[in-house]
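=== Structure Prediction Worksheet ===
Name of assembly: unnamed complex
Input type: mixed (protein and possibly other molecules)
Chain count: two
Listed entries:
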Amino acid sequence: MSAQDLVARAQRWSKEQPWRLFGSQIFILVRNEVRRNLFTRRRIWMYLLALIPVLIILAHVIFDRNEPAGPAQIENDTQVLAGIVQLYYLRLGIFFACMAVFTWLFRGEIVERTLHYQFLAPVRREVLVVGKFLAGAVVATALFETAVLACVFLMYSRFGSAGKSYVFDGPGLGQLESYLLVTALACLGYGAAFLALSLLFKNPIIPGVVIMGWETIAPIFPAWAQRLSVTFYLKQLCPVSLPIRGPLAIFTIVAEPVSPFIAALGLLCLTIAILALSCFLIHRMEITYTAE
Amino acid sequence: MTSSARQIVFANVSKFYGEVLGVNKVSFSLGPGITSLVGPNGSGKTTLMNLLTGLIRPSQGAIYVLGLTPQQPIEFFRQVGYCTQFDSFPPGTNGYDFIYWPLRLHGFDRDQAAKLTNEALERAGMAHVARRKVAGYSKGMRQRIRLAQAIAHHPSVLVLDEPLNGLDPMARAESIALFETIAKQGMHVIISSHILEEVDRISDRVVLMSSGYVVAEGQIREVRKEVHDHPMQILVRCSNAGRLAAAAFELDHVVEAKILNDGHGVLVRTHDAEQFYLLLNKIVSGGLVEVDAVAPADDDVNSIYQYLIGSDGGPV
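=== Predicted Assembly ===
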């Protein structure tokens, strides 16, 4: 079959698909899932997870308001902020929140014995995966972007006009944009991974811990292997680099950095590949609650 | 439209859960009307319904519903409504939303979905409690709201797993009337039930199941005729019962002719009902006996169930 035939077939297939219906179905799935996942008491611990650094910075702002606030302090706080985003949010907060949100999308419905309603709806299972994934992404991204935004605002607000100048006339705004991008990509990357794990395993927590271990030790592996970790791409996009410390520092292999564009694209490609795997897995899924 | 495109077809379908047999080598096709799946617990009724609606996949064989398969969910679930036995609901949902949002997934706009939701709630007798949380419903109400969701989009095939469970006698009668109305509109209604008397009253045909196998399938009277091991029972209400009993005994195929306690009738057990009816016609035209009523006494689901499956649930 020639390339032209393939293109013609793809075009014909595309024309036959009810894209409008898919769009409205995804919108409804996202709406229902967000209500179910975001506004529940079950998620309070997740809000706390996101808010802990905000509260610490707020306490710092209130109790250390009389400390000198010169350019050196701004640089110092910028490093602290980089540590909060890269070590706390990316490694822990977003990781665990995504584990909770995205594994619950399908596994939760199995536990609550309600997944059959989704499977009996006139919705293609791929659409179901995309709708649920987007809902999880909306929940996680909204929560952590708000938290990162609040951290940046509080961190620099205590410096008054110097802080304002650092953000709007200096590198602050660019750093904020990068942090927001990194946060969103982390939610997508980890989210896709945990969604797939929840379809593969009855208890996705153990493989989740394995992923966490992998993300932690990936820097000591060869460069090609590092590219299979979400952290590798995220690190490339972070505007402030942190010095490597701790026992792993001597084993760390510094991989050749990739451009931010490639890093973002690489992570999106990884996310799409994992989502495609989820679509494949959901087709094999059966409703046998008693076996779960 | 071809005949297979109007039928539900099971073609050599088997389902195994690992080593455990769900159903084995099931083949039949069903036309419109009410079909009852009858069998003891664990006989494979729910497995068959889950296979039909794509909740589980067959290990072997193929299933077509009006020419469609669950691999075409948009077209398939426009035609099929399934009221499962799972007594669980999305947390926090109320009766109205439980029906409304699935209708929106069908592609109905807000007004159409609202209209169909209200109509389904009315038909299921749930309109007055629609805005209450489902978690606060009684078992019967939960059963009815699931039924309302299954019929809301006007499917051509309605699959109902134990739909009469938990319903009070009034609600049960209303539900049965609803099934009959739907069936009269030319739809397929497939019901599994333990309540054999009600199944018998409403079914056009039965599928008898035991231990994962289809023991018998077809119209109830046709199935009864195929049960050769058990003579047919025919009840004749008449005058001069003794004369009729004596005449019946002269036939080889009659194994028993029992005069009723009140003396105004005979219960005949015969291997050839047609021959017996010919004899009866002859006796009546001869003026020897005056017949008030003649009716088969054991061509109901209950009797067939007892003959083919037995009271212990295993095949006889």
